[in-house]
Amino acid sequence: MTYGTKNGTVAVKAISAVLFLVFVFCYLYFYQADILAVSQHVLSGGKTSYEPTIGAALITLVLYLLQIGVYAFTKLEGRAYALTYFPSILILTVLTSLQPDCNKPIAFGAWWIVFPLLLLLYAGGGYVIRQCQTCHSYHRGAGWMSKVLWCNVLTLSGMFVFAGLCSNSNDVYHYRMKAERCLMRHDWDGAALVGRKSLATDSSLTMLRAYALAKQGLLGEYLFNYPVIGNSCVLLPDSQTVKLMMFQEKYIYHDLGIRLRQQLSPRKYLDFIDRHNIAKPMGHEYLLTAYLLDKDLDGFVRKIGKYYELNDSLPKHYREALTLYTHLHSVPYVVYHNTVMDADYQDFQKLCRSEADTAIRKTKLKDTYGNTYWYYYQYGE
Q1: With contact defined as beta carbons under 8 Å apart, do 93 and 114 qualify?
Q2: How far apart are the first and last CA of the chain?
Q3: pTM
Q4: Residue 235 gets which letter from DSSP?
Q5: How far apart are CA 336 and CA 326, in angstroms?
Q6: DSSP 3-state of 101
Q7: Nearest Cα to 107, choosing from 97, 115, 117?
Q8: I need a surface site. Which of 55, 94, 299, 305 has the fewest CB within 10 A?
Q9: How far apart are CA 381 and CA 379, in angstroms?
Q10: How many H-runs (helices) and E-runs (strands) does the chain carry?
Q11: Does the CA dihedral 173-179-183-185 come out positive or negative?
Q12: pLDDT (0 to 100) of residue 101
């Protein structure tokens, strides 16, 4: 092997190592930290917690040491050198493809079969490639190392894409886990802002956002700025469709008032603690929100006067609900008027009547009024 070829080989290995280390650390730290956090929480029974910087650094180091061991064993060189990173990438993919469930042990799904099968295919392919490799004791030409470098870079890139495609990329699940981690750090604002620009959501994410907003006293101001799934049942966890993975539900009940031994629906629970005067201020906000989520405007207007003066200082969604109620009833229980809110509602009604096609009308209303209670009342699920 000539001096130039030897230096070129070192360069290929160095560049491959840098690409691998940078990708794995960034991938773990910026994208998969929440998935690893919940996996560790479930596996340890909540006794340990995941620290993103340390965790990403340790996993990256272990996977790199594994690559060194694989290279020492296989001796794959030249264009095949990047393949020595495959076992490390495969393990990384498995680690970040899990979707833990609070009611079940962590399941590896098809990986129980796919993982050993891929390792067997890799071992067989690596043996064949090793046998086909030619001696590097002579000079390959000026452009040979450049081709080797690009071949390895493309191979690594393909494996990075494989990891990204086969890992847990469920955006709503990522939002939920990130929001829970924010709640565990008492970062209420951070939890409320998770996924704020996305239309993707589920009932569990709605519950987390409601709690984060309520902790800031903003539940009646911003909840319907987000896409909302479900009625009042989404306000409290039920371990079935509305779940917490890391954050403990006892903190939610403590902030609302008290936790009852008897399992009640969120609406019945909130009504019970309100009637028995054991609800805290957040419990009052949750009850009013439960009425709105159930589209029970009559119940809402009969209860809101207990906690608020019906004036222009009301939270936005409460003003919207009162405006809607006033316009829907010829003989309303309460009459609420706000010049700006009334004008906006009239514009909302005009837009409703301006388009006969339901789908087009819904799209237009969403673009302009998607952050209002009026839109939820008309189109919310």
Answers
A1: no
A2: 70
A3: 0.89
A4: G
A5: 6
A6: strand
A7: 97
A8: 305
A9: 6
A10: 18, 0
A11: positive
A12: 67
Amino acid at 257: G
pLDDT tens, position by position, 1-58 = 454 455 567 888 999 999 999 999 999 999 999 999 998 888 888 888 899 999 999 9
Distance (Å, whole) CA 189 – CA 216 = 8
CA distance 85 to 68: 9
- Spatial distance between the Cα atoms of 124 and 101, rounded to a whole number of angstroms: 36
Which residue type does 291 have?
Y
Q: Using CA atoms, how far apart are residues 152 and 352, in angstroms rounded to an integer?
A: 58
Tokens 């956002």, residue?
Answer: 209
Alpha-carbon distance 43 to 100, whole Å? 9
> What amino acid is encoded at 251 in this protein?
Y
Half-sphere exposure of 108 (CA within 13 A, CB side): 11
**Amino acid identity of 377?**
Y
How far is the CA of 149 from the CAs of 59, 80, 155, 262, 282, in angstroms? 26, 10, 10, 66, 61
Let me know the angle formed at the C-alpha of 112 by 70 and 127, rounded to the nearest 5 degrees.
Answer: 30
Confidence of residue 356 (pLDDT cuts 50, 70, 90): confident
